[in-house]
UniProtKB/TrEMBL annotation:
It comes from Streptomyces lannensis. It comes from the Bacteria. This is HTH cro/C1-type domain-containing protein.
Amino acid sequence: MKQPQISRIEGGGTVSTIPLLRRLARALDADLTINLTSHSNAA
């Protein structure tokens, strides 16, 4: 990834798709973890 791409992500100038987040995590030698949590108390 090039610096202008990183700047757009940091500035909120792009929609962060899962493939994009994977590439970013790979570039940073990091793991990508996505958690989904319910906001309702109904079962």
